[in-house]
Amino acid sequence: MANESRPCPCDIGDKFDYGGRGQEVQVGHIKAYVCKPSASTDKAVIVIHDIFGWQLPNTRYIADMLTTNGYVAICPDFFVGQEAWKPSNDWATFNDWVKTRDAGKIDKEVDVVLKYLKDQCGAKKIGVIGFCWGGAAVQHLMLKNPHLKTGVSLYGVISRFEDKHSLLHPTFFIFAEKDDVVPLEQVTLLQQKLKQNCKVDYEVKIYPGQTHGFVHRKREDINPQDKPYIEEGRRDMINWLNKYL
């Protein structure tokens, strides 16, 4: 039974009714959703899911969107078989749940995925995007993984890595002005720290009036007031990838 007095701040938003154009494959010890463009390419993007897991249709929709823009897209199960969070779960249990799913401990899985992309998909230039939990994972990877070219962190939980800002690769940070999960004071602090410590290209952008999850968990056709920002966020994400891949 969900705790109605304190619902999960990562509200599911609009759950897309979307089947996906790709397929599920086994990649080493994990499962993954993969979608490939019709024309061959050496560019790929790893898509890191939010707390709702790798099978969320919304996340697969974004992976397929990347494919229509010429990228091999792969969304692995970074929970490695553990259950994703459900909107019906009791929010009071969330902290214990998330402790067993550390966004900073996905390196083994990323290595397996990188090998698959290079060996099976012919990828030479690989970037990464991630949402919420996955956005924090992107920041982690941008700080330490030399094999990735660039990253886009969408409303990543930055408190997870608040003391680390020496990014290795160009990184784009997307935030929502009215985000209950990532308050603006955290974003301001991130900007200050990046300005002091970061030697690669980066951008931090705040989208007015938006809430957590707006790029992948709101539908532009039923949220007319948000449509310009949903579309802008997606366009900015793809433009950043195009620039650095």
TrEMBL record:
InterPro entries: AB_hydrolase_fold (IPR029058), CMBL (IPR042946), Dienelactn_hydro (IPR002925). Keywords: Cytoplasm. SUPFAM superfamilies: alpha/beta-Hydrolases. One of its GO terms (molecular function) is hydrolase activity. It comes from the Eukaryota. Residues 30-245 form the Dienelactone hydrolase domain. Belongs to the dienelactone hydrolase family. This is Carboxymethylenebutenolidase homolog. It comes from Pomatorhinus ruficollis.
